[in-house]
């Protein structure tokens, strides 16, 4: 089994001499972040490689997290996996996102009408995270799970979220990718810049197989929530073989722009009613 280090090792903030940071807490959270999708269990040595933390430190942290219910220990392989405490911790945040409940009926109608998948996502650092998904019963090719993440440059949704940044913030994020993920930026940077222009000019951007090869998508930036600060975008993904040439640009994108406008109106109405 190959072990891939995290894109952001434990250095950086934890290596700085900022006495206001609770370093042990931060290290524990970094250990939790070492677990990726797929449910793979990890041993202390694997976690140490992924995080850059010393193995004895990892051993103390994993035992503590297991005692608190955030990890489960598997004696047979001497490994840990994420446990129920992580899910319990995440639920209040999802519940606070009222947009999910407001948008879901119209998302489902749209997904059924185009036989695709419609999702909501937020920006989290250099990634986008899915927070809601509606899919047609006919679309069995790719359904994004809530909580799954993708690097911003690699999807229409991520690029739409990027377009919500002001010029200064967008430039800073670009420089961050150029430093920390130069290969990724070299491959997708031009698409990010084009998507910003497309969102400004026509309200949406598109992606053709940049994350899942057989899925093409259009995405629309929604808004930045004034209360939580979360930036939201909405997308529609379809199997490539179902799409006519230019259907993303001529039909799916404009319809998604109209859907986004309706969602914004519903959100504003909810806010006004208190």
List key phrases describing it.
single chain, 274 residues, alpha+beta, Arc Repressor Mutant, subunit A, Beta-Lactamase, 2 domains, 6-stranded antiparallel sheet, two-stranded antiparallel sheet, 9 helices, 8 strands, 19% strand, globular, disordered N terminus, WH_DNA-bd_sf, Tscrpt_reg_IclR_C, HTH_MetabolicPath_Reg, transcription
Topology:
Blueprint: H1 23-33, H2 44-51, H3 55-67, E1 71-74, E2 79-82, H4 84-96, H5 98-114, E3 117-124, E4 127-135, E5 149-151, H6 156-162, H7 167-180, H8 182-202, E6 205-208, E7 215-224, E8 231-239, H9 247-273
Antiparallel strand pairs: 1-2, 3-4, 3-8, 4-5, 6-7, 7-8
Helix pairs in contact: 1-3, 2-3, 5-9, 6-8, 7-8
In helices, the fraction of residues equals 40-55%
Provide the spatial order of strands within the biggest beta sheet: 5-4-3-8-7-6
Rounded mean pLDDT is 90
Report the count of strand segments. Answer: 8
Compact summary:
The chain is of the alpha+beta class. The chain has 9 helices and 8 strands.
Describe this structure in words.
With 274 residues, this protein is of the alpha+beta class. The chain has 2 domains: 74 residues, Winged helix-like DNA-binding domain superfamily/Winged helix DNA-binding domain (Arc Repressor Mutant, subunit A), CATH 1.10.10; 176 residues, GAF domain (Beta-Lactamase, 2-Layer Sandwich). Helix content is 48%, strand content 19%. It contains 9 helices and 8 strands. The chain has a 6-stranded antiparallel β-sheet, with helices on both faces. Helix 2 crosses helix 3 and helix 7 packs antiparallel against helix 8. The radius of gyration is 20 Å and the shape is globular. This is IclR family transcriptional regulator. Keywords: DNA-binding, Transcription, Transcription regulation. GO terms for molecular function: DNA binding; DNA-binding transcription factor activity.
């Amino acid at each position: 089994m190959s072990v891939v280090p995290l894109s952001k090792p434990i250095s950086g903030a934890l290596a700085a001499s900022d006495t206001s940071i609770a370093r042990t807490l931060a290290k524990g959270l970094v250990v939790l972040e070492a677990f990726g999708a797929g449910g793979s269990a990890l041993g202390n040595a694997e976690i140490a490689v992924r995080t850059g933390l010393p193995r004895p430190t990892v051993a103390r942290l994993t035992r503590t997290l297991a005692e608190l219910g955030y990890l489960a220990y598997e004696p047979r392989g001497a490994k840990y996996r994420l446990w129920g405490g992580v899910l319990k911790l995440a639920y209040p945040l999802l519940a606070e996102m009222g947009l999910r409940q407001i948008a879901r009926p119209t998302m489902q109608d749209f997904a059924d009408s185009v036989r695709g998948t419609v999702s909501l996502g937020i920006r989290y650092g250099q990634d986008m995270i899915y927070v809601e998904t509606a899919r047609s019963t006919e679309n069995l090719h790719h359904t994004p799970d809530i909580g799954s993440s993708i690097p911003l440059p690699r999807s229409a949704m991520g690029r739409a979220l990027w377009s919500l940044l002001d010029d200064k913030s967008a430039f800073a994020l670009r420089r961050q990718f150029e430093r920390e993920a130069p290969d990724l930026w070299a491959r997708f940077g031009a698409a990010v810049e084009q998507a910003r222009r497309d969102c400004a000019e026509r309200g949406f951007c598109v992606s053709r197989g940049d994350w899942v090869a057989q899925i093409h998508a259009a995405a629309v930036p929604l808004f930045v929530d004034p209360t939580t600060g979360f930036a939201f975008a909405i997308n529609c993904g379809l199997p490539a073989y179902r799409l006519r040439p230019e259907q993303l640009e001529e039909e799916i994108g404009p319809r998604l722009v109209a859907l986004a406008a309706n969602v914004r109106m519903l959100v504003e109405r909810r806010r006004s009613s208190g």
